[in-house]
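From the methods appendix. Each design record in this collection lists the tokenized structure first, followed by the designed amino acid sequence. Records were kept in a plain field format so they could be parsed without special tools. The example shown here is representative of the layout used throughout.

RECORD:
FOLD TOKENS (243 positions):
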């Protein structure tokens, strides 16, 4: 039984899913994987099921009906993991924009004292490969906007490559996390800080996907932009009982 599990949400990731699974299982530390698939019509879940016979007991699959949002996928995954004995719970994309080798470094950061370790694109300059300059600037200044509104010092607030210690997810009332797009990532980090947990950013190199299609949309960006203000205002009227 591993003490660490990687949650990978998927929708139409047939080009990447087998390669990312095999890569994670090739690492020196024995991670488990939980794939949360939102009814991918391209057969992503079928590929995962086929691999479960190869990685028996280490590869898990939860299937949902339709696209229900990134945030709800992770909340589903968090609750699934908390019902088991995992101590370190990771978020990672399926498309190799996050280098699986960095899972080792994120876990080590938590072993050394972090409660939430963030794979950060912006803690040491801008470490993004294959993104058009417009998207780099939007992402970089979005994190600056989040810092301005929330008063936090996280350099990569929208990062989706993270490791949580179990106690963080046990403390945060997950049913009160409201956002479902990239604002979900901001809300989780902000809430983790409000509960008094230690957050550490680990520098990574982010490489844009080469297979499949991006899930970014105007609606998701708008939720993040306006959601930050709503989240900050709501925090003034909310009690955070720190552990």
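DESIGN:
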């Amino acid at each position: 039984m591993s003490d660490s599990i990687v949650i990978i949400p998927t929708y139409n990731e047939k080009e990447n899913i087998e390669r990312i699974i095999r890569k994670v299982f090739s690492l020196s530390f024995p991670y488990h994987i939980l794939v949360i698939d939102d009814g991918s019509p391209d057969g992503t879940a079928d590929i995962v099921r086929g691999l479960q016979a190869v990685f028996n007991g280490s590869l898990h699959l939860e299937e949902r009906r339709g696209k229900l949002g990134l945030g709800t996928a992770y909340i589903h995954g968090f609750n699934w993991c908390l019902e088991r004995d995992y101590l370190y719970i990771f978020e990672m994309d399926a498309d190799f924009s996050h280098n699986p080798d960095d899972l080792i470094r994120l876990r080590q950061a938590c072993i050394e004292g972090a409660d939430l370790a963030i794979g950060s694109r912006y803690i040491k300059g801008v470490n993004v490969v294959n993104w058009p300059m417009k998207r780099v600037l939007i992402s970089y200044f979005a994190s600056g906007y989040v810092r301005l509104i929330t008063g936090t010092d996280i350099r990569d607030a929208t990062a989706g490559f993270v490791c949580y210690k179990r106690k963080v997810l046990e403390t945060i009332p997950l049913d009160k996390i409201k956002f479902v797009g990239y604002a979900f990532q901001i809300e989780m980090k902000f809430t983790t800080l409000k509960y008094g947990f230690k957050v550490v950013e680990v520098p990574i190199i982010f490489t844009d996907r080469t297979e499949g299609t991006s899930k970014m949309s105007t609606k998701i960006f708008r939720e993040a932009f306006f959601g930050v203000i709503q989240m900050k205002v709501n925090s003034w009227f909310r009690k955070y009982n720190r552990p």
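APPENDIX NOTE: The first helix runs from residue 17 to 25.
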